[in-house]
Write a structure and sequence with these properties.
The complex is a heterodimer of chains A (481) and B (481).
Chain A (H helix, E strand, L loop, with lengths): L8 H9 L5 H19 L2 E4 L1 H16 L11 E5 L26 H8 L3 E6 L34 H8 L5 E6 L5 H7 L2 E4 L19 E6 L2 H11 L29 E5 L9 H16 L3 E5 L7 H16 L18 H12 L2 H14 L5 H21 L5 E5 L14 H5 L6 H6 L3 E9 L2 E9 L4 H18 L1
Parallel strand pairs in A: 2-3, 2-4, 7-8, 7-9
Antiparallel strand pairs in A: 1-3, 4-6, 5-6, 5-10, 9-11, 10-11
Chain B lengths: L4 E12 L39 H13 L3 E2 L2 E2 L2 E4 L9 E4 L6 E9 L5 E13 L3 E5 L2 E5 L6 E7 L6 H18 L11 E11 L9 E6 L2 H20 L7 E6 L4 E7 L9 E2 L6 E2 L2 H10 L4 H11 L4 H7 L3 H14 L2 H19 L10 H12 L5 H11 L6 H7 L8 H14 L1 H9 L5 H15 L6 H12 L1
Parallel strand pairs in B: 12-13
Antiparallel strand pairs in B: 1-10, 1-11, 2-6, 3-16, 4-5, 4-15, 6-7, 7-10, 8-9, 11-12, 13-14
Helix pairs in contact in B: 2-3, 5-6, 7-8, 7-9, 9-10, 12-14, 12-15, 13-14, 14-15
The chains are: A alpha/beta (481), B alpha+beta (481).
Chain lengths: 481, 481
Amino acid sequence: MKKIYELTAFEIKEKILNRELTSEEVVKAIFERIEETDGEIGSFVSLRKEKALEEARIVDEKIKNGEAVGALAGVPVSIKDNMVSIGEPSQSASKILEGYEGIYDATVVKKLKDADAIIIGKTNMDEFAMGSTTTTSVYEQTTKNPWDLERVPGGSSGGGATSVAANQCFISLGSDTGGSIRQPASFCGVVGLKPTYGRISRYGLMAFGSSLDQIGPFGKTVKDVALSLNVLAGTDDYDSTVEDVEVPNYLDFLTGDIKGMKIGVPKEYFIEGLNPGVKKVVDEALETFKSLGAEIIEISLPHTKYAAPTYYVLAPAEASSNLARFDGIRYGHRTKNAANIDELYTKSRSEGFGDEVKRRIMIGTYVLSAGFFDAYFKKAQKVRRLIKNDFEKAFEKVDIIFTPVTPGPAFRLDAKKTPVELYLEDIFTIPANLAGIPGISIPAGMTEGLPVGIQLLGKAFGEKDILKAGDAFEKAIKERV
Amino acid sequence: MARQWESVIGLEVHLQLKTGTKVWCGCSADYDNSPTNTHTCPICLGHPGALPKLNKKVVEYAVKGALALNCKINNISGFDRKNYFYPDTPKNYQITQFEKPYCEKGHLDVKLNSGREFTVGITRIQIEEDAGKSIHAGSESLINFNRASMPLLEIISEPDLRSSEEAYEYLNLLKSTIKYTGISDVSMELGSLRCDANISVMEKGSKVYGTRVEVKNLNSFKAVARAIDYEIGRQIEVIENGGSIDQETRLWDDEAQVTRIMRSKEDAMDYRYFAEPDLPKLVIKNEEIERIKELMPESKTAKLKRFIEDYELPEYDANILTDEIELADYFEKVVQITKNAKLSSNWIMTEVLRELKESGKTIEESKISSEDLGKIINLIQKDVISSKIAKELFTIKLNDSRDPEVIVKEEGMVQVVDLGEIEGIVNQVLSENPKMVEDFKNSDEGRKPRVLKGLIGQVMKLSKGKANPKIVTELMELKLK
């Protein structure tokens, strides 16, 4: 029989509702599992065991009394360290927020609580979500890929991906600015969804690139991710960029039937540098879709090659402004020895931010400066529009788009990659952020003993399409295994 | 021949809107006299993850301001970030309108006391947020964020002003126009109106404007006028001495009555403006503008016209009474009680305005309420007191909380109308002043009224002003025949 922690979120929820299990038992099992494994894996940066147990008991009590409970009743969930929760460490893995505790709950935290989910702790990440390895965290803790402890888990939501992959929780929330959910999901063999920009409130998510950031769930299955999206999606009084688009019950689309679905395969995504192992998994996945009755159509997204440079202008520009509030005046790290206000800023920020964050603040400040604004920022905005148009045109012909997630599988922790090499890790995931469309990474196979994911992209607010296709695919390959 | 100079002035006026709550959050904006940092929340303190959400009332007020200043309202506008580090700016960027403001191309028609008229163009008005307030106490610096994120309108005029007098009159008209809309207190003392001046000089007849200097720290309309005069003089002197004007920002030193350099163009800020990604475009539909138009209070021009037409007041009276909306309201309340517009107007223009001038009070602070004045005037109309006694009553009322009618009764100020009593006094005066009686009889028709007036005066004096002058006159004329 499967152990409690090996079950899916959906199964756990069912068992708790049937009273086969109590939430308290589940939470206890999860904390035992974390104690056993997290020394090696390093998913978590803070835990809330006592509060979680207390909340679990309240949910159990409600169920016992026949009271109505939320859609994630009693299910242990972890969240990324860049999501604010009241009275709890919320640090974005940065020294500049050393000791900072949230003074309010992020909307997603509130929604999880309202859905009776049990938040068990915060997960490790790249500082301020900048990176693709989870190695730029200030915490003296390296998060390791559960499949091979000498490899990176991906980033920046690496801790979230490993917490699900290592069965330390059932659902985890990450944030995705250029692939930070989908790439670690692919590296760790879990499902990771970046929803449409404006589908989930960003209120309480420490901003990196405001026009690109989106919160999304990791799960063990597509169904768990759909269940989570039901809880998280929808308008919010505190975030006016969330669009007022109806939230369907995403579980309703998981029928397994995708006969006649048109799947676009962009030729620009199948590049020279694609790892052969990855290519094999991706090719097999396409065959699977064909066997399910989907129609595969070759498409072109001609501006794809400009996506990474565009992203690395726009994201740092927004980041340089978003991170300006971390100045040592109102909260967080303040330098001990400053003679005047300029020194207070400079030293607090020099001491508080890590190298990658500083690099991007400098790039961002440069591309926004009066002399270079038109040449960089404005031009990047124009290219972003072209990339968006590419997708809109493609979606006139196809229902979803199929691509690899990353050029290769998880790389070694000691692989000395330059910043630019690391930036290229995101070339398949970035376009979705620039276009604001949803993307999902689904485990599709293995190479060199490491998981490999595939990416499905949907039209804006077309989460139902990629969840439907992803679920059908997942069922098909499970049957084959 | 001495060179002839012409000055060019443009004003930037900041208005704080009386919307009740702040621009991006629900914090109460009525923070006057509140303890420091009590009107704050994660949003206006710029806490990690917090996002702005536009207060709908700000848009309504902004539209009212735009309509009052005859501006063209843009249906679609946007917000931008203006990035700069300053301790009382919580996010270290100010959200403002840069690329496209919500309204443009307005004007105000100013009429000088001399009768000369001129038009000042309004380039644009933008919605933006205020900063907090720094307090420097010795070596300590403290910040009060109660004012942070208060809604402001920045009204930028065209460089259409040519003298300090014009600037002064423009500001006065702007103030009274805005006051009429009820969107702001427009008080320099309360800080709800602030003004910066851009000043340059050029040779008379030149088509090319000189280099402009921005003067800040102007804390009264008089200071604006003085700073302009000083700056014009300084600039002319510099140029005539062979120097040139640098583009710089200067501060007005009210004590020394001079401007001092604050920063030069070389160390001017690079604000790195870019579109605020956390807020959607600001859409103001025509129907909404029409709806707000309906809500607009009567404008000064409309009120002036109505006062002349409905109350049959001379233009001179109507002009003075409508100068300030509070005075106009006061007048209308008095008229409601007296049903006599001209008499009410006379009393306000002479007694009330003189009293305000002497006491330095505003009409809202006046000791004589509209009810009081209405009652006093009605006492005259009902022949209970004479105009002369009424003036005494007015003076008494300034330091007396009793009702005017009560004062008249208790102080025995009621007019004498008893024929017998008045006849007694008339007879006494006639017998005590035989010379005057003789004089009257010998005078020609031209002189007679003057002598009569003297005799009546004696009667009034003897009756301590209480005798009804009409009866006195009739009796006197009868007896002298």
